[in-house]
Every structure is written in structure tokens, then in C-alpha cells.
Amino acid sequence: MKAVVLERYGSPEVLEYKDVADPVPAEGEVLVRVAAAGVNRVDVWIRTGKYQVKLPHVLGVDVAGEVVSSTVPHLRKGDRVVLFPDTPCGRCRYCLTGRFQLCRNASRLGSTRWGGYAEQIVAPASTAIPLPSGVSLEEAAALPVNYSTAWRALVTDAAVGPGMWVLVVGGSSGVGVAATQIARLSGASVISVVGDNWKEEKAYKAGADFVVNRKKKDVVEEVLKTTGGEGVDVVLEMAGTPFWEKALQCLAPGGTLVVVGATAGDQVSFNVRPFFRKYQRIIGSGVGTQGEFLRIIDLFSHGKLRPVIDKVFSLKDASEAHRRLEAGEHFGKILLKP
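The structure corresponding to this sequence follows.
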């Protein structure tokens, strides 16, 4: 089969489109023909060596497709499925106390296992979630990382609800679009931060109540003006170094800063005194559990959530997809199709 193989770390050019052996499912696994695979920041971090994996490697955490063969009776050839990326061990103290997202022995597609930048993929059958008829496989491939991350951060960790204000930093990203939809679905009002003029209208169409172009206006001033000087109840932050202090300045007393990434820098510092005097919180978050993802699938199948697809690239053009993501030229989800 054809796959995009990473044999050394580096720029997008290191992604090689080539022939590899067809995967064979072991007991308890399923073989899936990939219909679409999502492109994520974690793919870039692995490609550049920020996260080390065993090489050669096939990236791709988000995958949807059709079952080719299965070793379990509840999945049959032709079934349309989306794969949940993580498989917790089920035995560690985190798993035994229901904190599956913290499992240190978990396997993950595109990280500890070969991922979806390929024509076919083998995955644990327990992670293959059947999709209702009429549900697009392309849209399903846009769900796992972005929507699970946004759901865990906003619903589970920050308890977003009616009457709250949410600031989404990186509102044009896949996670940003998902967070906007999920916050609105929870009854909150959303301020979306974008960095280009053409993204402003798209952010409104994605569901934002207010949009701030960080290159044209001061985000803190706009947030305080919009919220009557109070600030927001929740900031979803994924930029890191350049926006960290501003994120805290946007936060209302008792508010929560939820961090899900560091796309523009890892190191941050801040004045701790106003932070503790205002009873604020900082929470680290990431991809949630399969149970949370099942809720997302249900809402998706009923039209309550709808991914925004930015652009679909051919699998052989994976390097171009990475360039688009790194340049911030996208709005929503970038996909690859074999």
C-alpha cells in the first residue's frame, strides 16, 4: 500500500510518499481502509522531533474509513467507522480510577502506533466507532483530536455553561472552531481571536459572538469592553509564550485559563499576585476519553456539531498540507485523502 513515511526529523520535505507492506490485524484488531485523515499540530511536533517516536513512522491521529477485515464479531467488512486515537492500558492507577486520559501506558495512533497517513491502518477494535448512515467520513475524520480536546477543556475541565463568557485563542484552528461550537452549544458567549482579516467573517459563521483580529486591535481592551470590564470566565489558550500574559489579563475574577497547546512558544511567566488574589485557576488539558468522544459523535450525528473543513489534500501532498498548517493559512480542519 501507499503511505507517507517519516524516516528522519525535519521540514515538511522529509515526509515521503512511498510503498510499505500492507498491515495485518492481530487478535482484537481491525483493518480499516482510510477515507480521510486529519492533519494536526502534534503531527508537526513529531515531524520536527519535538516529540520523539520510533522511526520509520507513519503520522496521523485522526482517521475515518471502512472496515476491510476484523477479528471481532461486532465489526464487519464495509462498516463505516471513526477511530478514537487512544487506547488506555486499563490496569494503571489512573485507569482504575477512571482517569483514562492520564494513562502513561496508553497507545496512540500516529504516535506509538502507525497512523492514518496511509491507504490502510490497523487499530484496536475497541477504538473503532460505527458511524450512522449519511454521516460524512471526511467530517468524521475531523472530529477526534479537535473536538475531544475542546470538549475535555471546556465541558469537563472548565465546566462551561449558560451565561458564561469564553475567549477562544486561535479561533481559526481546528480546536478553535470546535471550541466555539461546543461553548455555544453549552449556552456560553464566545469571543474568538484570529490573526487575519479574511478569517473574521469565517469566525462569525463558525458561531462566535464577537471576533477580535489581534493584528488590528488590542485583545485585552476588546475583551474588557465587550464584557463590561469584567473579563471572560474561561480562556482557551493554545498559543503559549506570546499571548500568555494577555490571556490572564482577559480573565475575570474566579475565571479559568485552560491550556491545550503551545503553538508559538513553550516558556511563559506571569505576575502571580493578582492571579491568587482573584481566585483564578490554570488547568492543563488535552484529548479527552472515549466516553466523551461518544457524546461528541452523538451530537455530530444529530447535527449539533459540524466540523469546518479547510482543505482536502491528496495523501501524496502531505508536505504541502503541513506547510499550510504551519503558515496559519487555514481556517478549520486540513484533511488528507488517499
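The chain has two domains: 2-142+307-337, 147-284.
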